[in-house]
């Protein structure tokens, strides 16, 4: 399962290529509480089909009514991008299911260029990080390579968004924990691969959509070419495999600083499924740049437990 951004862009391109009219909506600004963060995208087809999300559903319904014939609305227009606000008043916020005081602003692109989308997708599919900038006065789009993620930007004249290839996860060890973890990672838009040189373990692997990478973990990690949108998780419980992977992954001072272990947040997990929840929670926290309190650190929480201190 690919990331929602890639899914929206790929679907919009395919719809345009098939001759459909398409609206691409991006959350440009929010005030107060809002259902979706800035940069969130959705694509709306002329017959009312939707992929992606800019709210909990009510705003999508309003866009369908405004810009498609699915519920008697007008045909989707052409022309320069438009800015549309929701939730300015308390009544409107309630009508569109926004939290109390929530307001969001959308930028609407009508029939974005299929050639531009194809070029963007080709760059993303090749593993590049791309900064897409839209000029609202005429709808022109520029694409440039980026070396690191940059903050989303909207100043009323230009909308800029850094788009990257899907997040990747490499699992070392094909046991039950890895299967649960792979399932959750796929649902969260990660591209997942597993490495285990033990054929008896790979023979029982049952999660579809996961790439099997043959070879020893150090060779596989080297070929994996980890970047800032990828993670390597050693869960084979065999130091001959896990250590090979971690030694290769932590090859520099900077990468050693990003090493985390024991992995996961402390939730008192015992079973493979619960441990996978714990691990995935920490992965998503790191991905979303959330600093976790010490109370959920596995090592610290277990020390408190052994001392008889209360554990949150």
User: How many helices does DSSP assign?
Assistant: 11
Helix content bin: 25-40%
Largest sheet: 5 strands, antiparallel
Could you say which structural class the secondary elements and strand pairing correspond to? alpha+beta
Distance between the terminal alpha carbons, to the nearest Å?
A: 34 Å
The number of domains: 3
Which spans have pLDDT < 50 for at least 5 consecutive residues?
none
Strand content: 15-25%
Spatial strand order of the main sheet: 3-2-1-5-4
Strand count = 13
What can you see in these coordinates?
- This protein is α+β, with helices and mostly antiparallel strands and 312 residues long.
- The protein folds into three domains: 4-163, no CATH class; 167-259, Rossmann fold (3-Layer(aba) Sandwich), CATH 3.40.50.720; 261-312, no CATH class.
- Helix content is 35%, strand content 22%.
- The chain contains eleven helices and 13 strands.
- It has helices at residues 4-17, 58-67, 90-95, 114-125, 176-187, 199-202, 217-224, 239-249, 253-257, 272-287, 298-307; strands spanning 22-31, 41-45, 50-52, 82-86, 103-110, 129-135, 141-146, 153-154, 158-163, 168-172, 191-195, 211-212, 230-234.
- Strand 10 (168-172), helix 5 and strand 11 (191-195) form a beta-alpha-beta unit.
- Helix 1 packs antiparallel against helix 4 (114-125) and helix 5 packs across helix 10 (272-287).
- The longest helix has 16 residues, at 272-287.
- It starts with a helix and ends in a 5-residue tail after the last helix.
């Amino acid at each position: 399962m690919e990331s929602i951004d890639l899914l929206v862009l790929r679907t919009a391109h395919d719809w345009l290529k098939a001759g459909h009219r398409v609206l691409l909506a991006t959350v440009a600004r929010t005030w107060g509480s809002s259902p979706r963060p800035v940069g969130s995208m959705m694509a709306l087809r002329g017959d009312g089909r939707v992929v992606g999300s800019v709210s909990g559903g009510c705003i999508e319904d309003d866009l369908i009514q405004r810009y498609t014939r699915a519920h008697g609305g007008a045909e989707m227009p052409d022309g320069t991008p438009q800015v549309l606000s929701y939730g300015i008043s308390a009544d409107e916020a309630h009508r569109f299911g926004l939290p109390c005081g929530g307001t969001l602003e959308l930028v609407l692109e009508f029939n974005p260029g299929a050639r531009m989308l194809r070029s963007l997708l080709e760059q993303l599919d090749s593993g590049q990080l791309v900064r897409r900038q839209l000029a609202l006065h005429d709808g022109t789009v520029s694409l440039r390579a980026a070396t690191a993620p940059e903050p989303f930007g909207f100043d009323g004249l230009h909308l800029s968004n850094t788009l990257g290839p899907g997040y990747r996860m490499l699992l070392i060890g094909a046991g039950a924990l890895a299967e649960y973890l792979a399932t959750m990672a796929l649902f969260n838009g990660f591209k997942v691969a597993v490495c285990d040189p033990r054929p008896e373990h790979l023979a029982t692997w049952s999660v579809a959509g996961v790439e099997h990478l043959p070879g020893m973990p150090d060779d596989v990690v080297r070929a994996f070419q980890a970047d800032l949108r990828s993670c390597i998780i050693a869960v084979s419980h065999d130091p001959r495999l896990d250590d090979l992977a971690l030694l290769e992954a932590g090859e520099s001072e900077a990468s050693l600083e990003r090493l985390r272990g024991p992995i996961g947040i402390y939730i008192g997990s015992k079973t493979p499924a619960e441990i996978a929840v714990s691990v995935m929670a920490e992965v998503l926290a790191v991905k979303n740049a959330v600093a976790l309190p010490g109370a959920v650190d596995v090592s610290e929480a277990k020390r408190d437990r052994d001392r008889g201190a209360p554990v949150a």
